[in-house]
């Protein structure tokens, strides 16, 4: 009990900057914002929406949300066009005023209800990075067919064998970082897409940062289209070799 | 130390052990020559086993989809009268 109270007290001294890159997430962005506010009631946080010039009016919705929740809680830091995930994080980081940074997807595959468990884990262990894993008990995936699960499993075993990454879910992008750690790791990463996520966590492991995991559930794409094809697999293998040789 | 250096050192150590085994002839040479093949094959089998086990034990969460739909309905309901447009696309 005493521990719980300590954790609660410590929460008050920290601010969490939640970076959400968006592209055509007109519907999801409002839902995500609602859920974040719902699950982080007593936490000091800000949501930084990095929108890459969505043609579907995402930014309009964000402005409506700002009107409702306040411009100090929801920051819109847009860019002119699709410039990639890595640079979206860097862009968001520049405007982050918290001492912790959370990165998550806007499409509701990452559920804000896990944010308290990320925060709690970090406060308990003083980890530099807390990463969500879908592949342990308590976590899980919904919406994947057998082929997709097979690819994921195969990719994971290959990555574990080659890279010894120290985490069970390499391509996951639901993570909490100490701000200084994110700045350090991101500066040395050059990959694109989900290989970028892998590179981040592998480089963090190589640099000796304390990484903890929390189970998360992942519901694949409520709205919108999924993207995993032959070219993705080739990109993944190229990424693995790159990480094998350069980290 | 870069990771690849660690892996290569491991391979060099294993190779040295294998060459040592060849020269010392404790085990009949015909077997020793085949050891690398056995090693690669067992590594492959181990990998396939891990993939198979992982696939069987793959954690799923069908109830989460239901919960998510509930959350979405709750959120839409909240925004209906707050000036945020959450109608369908």
UniProtKB/TrEMBL annotation, chain A:
GO terms for biological process: dolichol-linked oligosaccharide biosynthetic process; GPI anchor biosynthetic process; protein O-linked glycosylation via mannose. Residues 17-185 form the Glycosyltransferase 2-like domain. Keywords: Endoplasmic reticulum, Glycosyltransferase, Transferase. Its EC number is 2.4.1.83. It catalyses: a di-trans,poly-cis-dolichyl phosphate + GDP-alpha-D-mannose = a di-trans,poly-cis-dolichyl beta-D-mannosyl phosphate + GDP. It holds the Pfam family Glycos_transf_2. Its main location: endoplasmic reticulum. GO terms for molecular function: dolichyl-phosphate beta-D-mannosyltransferase activity. Pathway: Protein modification; protein glycosylation. GO terms for cellular component: endoplasmic reticulum membrane. CDD domains: DPM1_like (cd06442). It comes from the Eukaryota. It is found in: Endoplasmic reticulum. Belongs to the glycosyltransferase 2 family. Transfers mannose from GDP-mannose to dolichol monophosphate to form dolichol phosphate mannose (Dol-P-Man) which is the mannosyl donor in pathways leading to N-glycosylation, glycosyl phosphatidylinositol membrane anchoring, and O-mannosylation of proteins. Component of the dolichol-phosphate mannose (DPM) synthase complex. This is Dolichol-phosphate mannosyltransferase subunit 1. The lineage of its organism: Eukaryota, Viridiplantae, Streptophyta, Embryophyta, Tracheophyta.
UniProtKB/TrEMBL annotation, chain B:
Component of the dolichol-phosphate mannose (DPM) synthase complex. PANTHER family: DOLICHOL-PHOSPHATE MANNOSYLTRANSFERASE SUBUNIT 3. Stabilizer subunit of the dolichol-phosphate mannose (DPM) synthase complex; tethers catalytic subunit to the ER. The keyword Membrane applies. The chain crosses the membrane at residues 34-55. Belongs to the DPM3 family. It comes from the Eukaryota. Signal peptide: none annotated. Pathway: Protein modification; protein glycosylation. GO terms for cellular component: dolichol-phosphate-mannose synthase complex; endoplasmic reticulum membrane. InterPro entries: DPM3 (IPR013174). It holds the Pfam family DPM3. The keyword Transmembrane helix applies. This is Dolichol-phosphate mannosyltransferase subunit 3. It is a multi-pass membrane protein. Keywords: Endoplasmic reticulum, Membrane, Transmembrane, Transmembrane helix. It is found in: Endoplasmic reticulum membrane.
């Amino acid at each position: 009990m005493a521990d719980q109270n300590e954790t609660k007290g410590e929460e008050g001294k920290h601010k969490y900057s939640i970076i959400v890159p968006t592209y055509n997430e007109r519907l999801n962005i409002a839902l995500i914002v609602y859920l974040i506010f719902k699950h982080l009631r007593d936490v000091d946080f800000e949501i930084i929406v990095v929108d890459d010039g969505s043609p579907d009016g995402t930014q309009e919705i964000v402005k409506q949300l700002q009107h409702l929740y306040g411009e100090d809680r929801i920051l819109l830091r847009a860019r002119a066009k699709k410039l990639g995930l890595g640079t979206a994080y860097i862009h968001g980081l520049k405007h982050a005023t918290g001492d912790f940074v959370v990165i998550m997807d806007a499409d509701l595959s990452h559920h804000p209800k896990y944010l308290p468990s990320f925060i709690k884990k970090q406060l308990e262990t003083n980890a530099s990075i807390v990463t969500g894993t879908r592949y342990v008990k308590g976590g899980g995936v919904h919406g994947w067919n057998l082929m997709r699960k097979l690819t994921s499993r195969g990719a994971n075993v290959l990555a574990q064998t080659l890279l010894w990454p120290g985490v069970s879910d390499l391509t996951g992008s639901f993570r909490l970082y100490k701000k200084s750690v994110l700045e350090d790791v991101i500066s040395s990463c050059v990959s694109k897409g989900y290989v970028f996520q892998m590179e981040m966590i592998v480089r963090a492991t190589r640099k000796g940062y304390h990484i903890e995991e929390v189970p998360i559930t992942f519901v694949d794409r409520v709205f919108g289209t999924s993207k995993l094809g032959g070219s993705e697999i080739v990109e993944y293998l190229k990424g693995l070799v790159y990480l094998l040789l350069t980290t | 130390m870069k990771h690849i250096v660690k892996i290569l050192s491991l391979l060099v150590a294993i190779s040295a052990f294998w060459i040592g085994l060849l020269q010392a002839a404790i085990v009949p040479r015909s077997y020793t020559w085949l050891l690398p093949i056995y090693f690669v094959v067992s590594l492959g089998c181990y990998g396939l086993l891990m993939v198979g086990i992982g696939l069987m034990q793959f954690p799923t969460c069908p109830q989460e989809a239901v919960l998510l739909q509930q959350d979405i309905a709750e959120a839409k309901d909240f925004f209906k009268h707050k000036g945020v447009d959450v109608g369908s696309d």
